[in-house]
Amino acid sequence: MSTILEIADLKALAKRRVPKLFFDYADSGSYTESTYRANESDFSRIKLRQRVLVDMSGRSLETTMIGEKVSMPVALAPTGLTGMQHADGEMLAAQAAEEFGVPFTLSTMSICSIEDVVSVTKKPFWFQLYVMRDRDFVMNLIDRAKAAKCSALVLTADLQILGQRHKDLRNGLSAPPKLTPKHLYQMATRPRWCWNMLQTSRRTFRNIHGHAKGVTDLASLNAWTTEQFDPQLSWKDVEWIRERWGGKLIIKGILDAEDATLAAQTGADAIVVSNHGGRQLDGAHSSISMLPRIVDAVGDKIEIHLDGGIRSGQDVLKAVALGAKGTFIGRPFLYGLGAMGKPGVTKALEIIRKEMDTTMALCGKRRIEDIDRRILAENPY
Ligand SMILES: Cc1cc2nc3c(=O)[nH]c(=O)nc-3n(C[C@H](O)[C@H](O)[C@H](O)COP(=O)(O)O)c2cc1C
């Protein structure tokens, strides 16, 4: 634990502890992965302004996201198959987030169900919605999130069709994994993962299994998920989803100022500037590079969050400086989970908090609310 100093350390440990097909599922982008790489590398092009001899005592990272108090402006992003990085992964990550005081977002494509997560948490979490062709299923899913007292619905707008991830096809990814010799070998060389997985019965998509018509076994579940993402989903649908839900709504997957304007017109409470972690449109710009023009377009109309490529507290501060009220992390918490379960998720959050706190001080600021573009350095050349 003491040698884990940065998110990259958690990634290296997760690689050793999680079977290859699931580690690769997290560590991949679509096609050439150029957008996946740009999400991370574009952060390092932004430079911070060093300020000195200012009182840096009494610092606080507390703020709000959609009106909810958070201990720092970082939420856990919705990620599918999280319960395959570590047994009961969604339940463990939700608990870690709750204890840390940051929001946890449960994916529609999670292993643990909404009800599973409710059973181990005390505070409301957020629920991410994929809209399926089977509208009865979607309505029921929204009602289940309501019954669970989820405090926000995160509608993902950038995955009506799947960007191809070569690694997943090469690895033959499925949940639960198929028992081919290759997969058995990958699991046998990860005994800790296997042991934990044998202690749980949660090994398939539990938000879907038993809730969607005709999904009674694994074969029908696989067929259902591949054909169910609705290619006809449009801005018009946001209205009925919003009505049915009736609570706070966040639209995730906005990368263009025109789409941001349309999203603001829906009356949603926030948008997430996101390219799905580089897993959808390969060749799209990084999230952080698109943030300034989206803030200029709708910053006074709707709350703006950002995800994609955040690997440090410095990255969070840069996003906040450019106008994000909050951020989401996907892979950093997945690596923590794969490396060490719940303490690993806590560790990922601690790393980011410590980096953010120190960096804020070295920029001459004491409160996250004081962070704006003035902490960024101009290109000196
Ligand atoms: C393994 C994995 C699974 C994901 N599954 C979902 C999902 O089910 N729903 C969703 O809206 N986004 C999903 N995403 C995208 C994340 O919510 C988020 O946009 C992305 O991970 C942010 O980039 P980062 O991983 O660089 O932090 C997934 C991302 C990863 C890495």
Please give the structural blueprint:
Elements: H1 7-17, H2 20-26, H3 34-44, E1 63-65, E2 68-70, E3 74-76, H4 89-100, E4 105-106, H5 114-120, E5 126-129, H6 135-147, E6 152-156, H7 166-171, H8 181-188, H9 191-198, H10 218-228, H11 235-245, E7 249-254, H12 257-265, E8 270-273, H13 287-298, E9 303-307, H14 313-321, E10 326-329, H15 331-340, H16 342-362
Parallel strand pairs: 3-10, 4-5, 5-6, 6-7, 7-8, 8-9, 9-10
Antiparallel strand pairs: 1-2
Helix pairs in contact: 1-15, 4-5, 4-16, 12-13, 14-16, 15-16
Descriptive terms for the model:
44% helix; alpha/beta; 10 strands; two-stranded antiparallel ribbon; L-lactate dehydrogenase (NAD+) activity; Alpha-hydroxy-acid oxidizing protein; binds flavin mononucleotide; 381 residues; 16 helices
Task: Give an overview in words.
The chain has about 375 residues and is α/β, with parallel strands linked by helices. It has one domain (about 5-380): TIM Barrel, CATH 3.20.20.70. About 45% of the residues lie in helices and about 10% in strands. The strands form 2 sheets. An 8-stranded parallel beta sheet has the order 3-10-9-8-7-6-5-4. Strands 1-2 form a two-stranded antiparallel ribbon. Helix 12 (about 255-265) links the parallel strand 7 and strand 8. Helix 4 packs across helix 5, helix 4 (about 90-100) runs parallel beside helix 16 and helix 12 crosses helix 13 (about 285-300). The radius of gyration is 20 Å and the shape is globular. Bound molecules: flavin mononucleotide. The site of flavin mononucleotide (FMN) has 25 residues, from helix 2, strand 10 and helix 15. Belongs to the FMN-dependent alpha-hydroxy acid dehydrogenase family. InterPro entries: Aldolase_TIM (IPR013785), Alpha-hydoxy_acid_DH_FMN (IPR012133), FMN-dep_DH (IPR000262), FMN_HAD (IPR037396), FMN_hydac_DH_AS (IPR008259). GO terms for molecular function: FMN binding; L-lactate dehydrogenase (NAD+) activity.
